[in-house]
Write a structure and sequence with these properties.
Number of domains: 5
InterPro entries: Kinase-like_dom_sf (IPR011009), PBP_domain (IPR024370), Phosphate_ABC_transporter (IPR050811), Prot_kinase_dom (IPR000719), Protein_kinase_ATP_BS (IPR017441), Ser/Thr_kinase_AS (IPR008271)
CATH architecture of the largest domain: Orthogonal Bundle
Shape: globular
GO molecular function: ATP binding; protein kinase activity
CATH class of the largest domain: Mainly Alpha
Radius of gyration: 31 Å
CATH topology of the largest domain: Transferase(Phosphotransferase), domain 1
Distance between the termini: 62 Å
Number of helices: 20
Number of strands: 25
Protein name: Protein kinase
Keywords: ATP-binding, Kinase, Membrane, Nucleotide-binding, Signal, Transferase, Transmembrane, Transmembrane helix
Largest sheet: 6 strands, antiparallel
Helix content: 25-40%
Strand content: 15-25%
Organism: Hassallia byssoidea VB512170
Structural class: alpha+beta
CATH superfamily of the largest domain: Transferase(Phosphotransferase) domain 1
């Protein structure tokens, strides 16, 4: 089937094709006359040449999804959708026709800083509507912003790769230079901060006429040397104000957690030039109100020019002395007002999150029950954390008597699965696990009249370690498939993976170890439930394994990332999900002096190796539920998360204060 030619009629002659506006590998946009309403519209459809492809049906579904996304977002700065219909086996979206230029072309013809800021504010308003509808645009860029000639206002177009926030992204659709690092991963969450990066990058381009360094390149440089190759926009265009420069750089932070988390938050940075200075009191405005005849400029002294000096001197000395106490009193009064009107969050600040209440201090956690014995247990990985928490709880909540148990008379060994079993049987009040629950225990709980709820409290990523003799020059990284082939004995020489001609010697701990969950998870997620190869050597404890790794050239193993910190005898390898994905190390630097918390939090590290620790709560409306919720609240408080870090894990929450 060929493209529709000018004059071709659609939907019972209502729409008449004028011409093709644009054509790409996947889609075609037509300029069309709507004869019923006598107006120009755009009809967007898939390229008919794709009909022969096996994935065409999936493309049609995505195309329908774009129409659904657009229909939910009504705003003057978002392209409007008028109609949706099928024609000759192709889905068609009828949209508003906007005849203007896109911002990409407008920028090269010249655009002032104020014009650029006006357009960005308009698109920001549009994105607030997008985000309010639980959507992320995912392709904000100058070419997707059209300027209407009738009113010189910006309109955001092309929602082709927009997605709901809570739907997992399964495609790596992106535009380089405008896409943040999370769009290079199919596992990383993408929310409002994803569009904020793209919007800040768009402003960067508008004001400098240069595309910023792409986020993947920036990430590699930051991870390798700690230096960001992104050139400050103010260096490229000295006319950019410091406030605008700072807003762009903050919006383009590599790690999502470091960016503003909402459009409003980012706009507050962008508008800072029109707002108060960093100081809580704007002395300039106070003095301007008190002395209307005096011109005060920010960041200057009162007498910064002769005119002001002479103007002030024209007033009698007595009047100066008389007014001064009132000026000081006015400033002091405003200072008190600021203190009471804009308080910082108090130290006992708590916030409700579902069934949990997250506080700053352990002492402020509410509804901690008075129970003389609260038994809990499960994964032995929590042993150090258990010692820390029991000691501190006695100080803040002495009525909540926690007692960790490893064994019952049945003689069962502790572990994640055992802990959940004990919880279902009523032997403990809540369980600690290092593996997500399967459907089987959830069903068992349901049959007994209650439900089980997992609350993540920490990360404990698995690091892939090799003998330090395998330098980064010899072997840069591995994929999950490479790991699978190594530990199943299918690849036996590093040369097969682009490394030196050296035998691969894989190690692992045996299943009697406390960290057996690492083996279980690795076998389930990386080996895809297949057996380890007979070439894998087992060790009784981590100390023996690390010693063997240091002494054996070409050796490889997996350990929890906390065990790899400052270990000179090993090197932690960056791991990629596949050959098309970013290779990521769980360490903050080449020497692994610290865990890279940002990468772990943002799920840039492959999820197959990025484990979580959970507390499992029994929702039975009884004492066990009270105990489980109280424990989760305690561990997820700011002080509790610091305890988690002391125990060698990565806190689940980002605690900044």
């Amino acid at each position: 089937m060929s493209n529709w030619a000018p004059g071709h009629q659609l939907k019972d002659s209502r729409y008449i094709i004028r011409k093709i506006l644009g054509k790409g590998g996947f889609g075609i946009a037509y300029w069309v006359l709507d004869t019923k309403l006598s107006r120009d519209v755009v009809i967007k459809t898939l390229n008919p040449e794709l009909k022969a492809q096996a994935y065409f049906e999936k493309l049609q579904q995505d195309f329908y999804h774009e129409a659904r996304c657009l229909s939910r977002c009504s705003h003057p700065h978002i392209v409007q959708i008028y109609d949706f219909f099928s024609e000759s086996g192709l889905e068609c979206i009828v949209m508003q026709y906007i005849p203007g230029d896109n911002l990409n072309d407008r920028a090269f013809r010249g655009i002032t800083q104020q014009e650029a800021l006006n357009y960005i504010h308009q698109i920001s308003a549009a994105l607030q509507v997008v985000h309010k509808n639980n959507l992320v645009h995912r392709d904000v860029k100058p070419a997707n912003i059209i300027i209407q000639p009738s009113n010189n206002e910006a309109v955001l177009i092309d929602f082709g790769i927009a997605r709901e926030v809570d739907i997992k992204i399964k495609t790596r659709a992106l535009t380089e230079c405008f896409a943040p690092i999370e769009q290079y991963s199919v596992d990383a969450p993408q929310e409002a901060y994803t569009d904020i990066y793209a919007l800040a990058a768009t402003l960067y381009f508008l004001l400098t006429k240069q595309k910023p360094v792409d986020s993947q390149t920036r990430y590699f440089h930051i991870n390798q040397s700690g230096k960001d190759p992104l050139i400050s926009p103010q260096q490229l265009n000295p006319r950019i104000s410091p406030y605008t420069n700072n807003a762009i750089l903050q919006g383009m932070k590599i790690f999502a957690a470091e960016r503003p988390q909402s459009i409003i938050e980012w706009l507050n940075l962008l508008d800072k030039a029109q707002k108060k200075e960093v100081s809580p009191i704007n002395l300039t405005s106070v003095l301007q109100t008190t002395l209307p005849q005096t011109t005060i400029r920010e960041n200057t002294t009162l007498f910064n020019n002769r005119d002001n000096q002479q103007q002030f001197n024209s007033t009698s000395t007595n009047r100066q002395i008389t007014n001064l106490p009132w000026i000081i009193a006015g400033i002091a009064t405003l200072a008190l007002a600021v203190i009471f009107i804009v308080p910082d969050k108090p130290t006992n600040y708590c916030q409700k999150r579902g069934i949990l209440t997250i506080c700053r201090r352990i002492a402020d956690v509410p509804n901690v029950p008075a129970l003389t014995q609260v038994l809990y247990g499960g994964s032995t990985l929590f042993s150090l954390l258990n010692k820390l928490e029991i000691a501190r709880l006695q100080k803040y909540h002495p009525q909540f008597k926690l007692e960790h148990t490893d064994k019952f008379p049945s003689g069962e060994n502790p572990g994640s699965s055992t802990g959940i079993k004990w919880l279902i049987e009523g032997k403990i009040s809540f369980a600690q696990t290092a593996l997500m629950m399967t459907e089987e225990p959830k069903l068992s709980a349901k049959n007994k009249g209650f439900t089980l709820r997992e609350e993540p409290i920490a990360y404990d990523a698995e690091a892939v370690c090799v003998n330090s003799g395998l330098t980064s020059q010899m072997l840069k990284s591995l994929t999950l498939e490479d790991l699978r082939n190594i530990f199943q004995g299918k690849v036996t020489n590093w040369q097969q993976l682009g490394g030196p001609d050296l035998k691969i010697t894989p190690f692992r701990l045996n299943r009697q170890q406390k960290q057996s969950y690492v083996l279980v998870k690795f076998q389930e997620t990386v080996l895809k439930k297949q057996a380890y190869g007979t070439n894998v050597q087992e060790f009784a404890n981590p100390t023996e394994l690390i010693k063997a790794l240091a002494e054996t050239p070409g050796s490889i193993t997996t350990l929890t990332v906390s065990q790899t910190i400052n270990k000179k005898e090993m090197r932690v390898l960056p791991i990629a999900k596949d050959k098309n994905s970013l290779a990521v190390s769980p360490c903050a630097d080449d020497k692994c002096t610290a865990v890279n918390k940002n990468l772990i939090h943002e799920n840039y590290y492959p999820q197959e190796l990025n484990g979580k620790l959970y507390v499992v709560i029994k929702l039975d409306s009884g004492f066990d539920e009270q105990a489980g919720i109280a424990y989760a609240n305690i561990i997820l408080s700011d002080e509790g998360q610091k305890m988690v870090e002391e125990a060698g894990f990565v806190p689940f929450r980002r605690v900044t204060r």
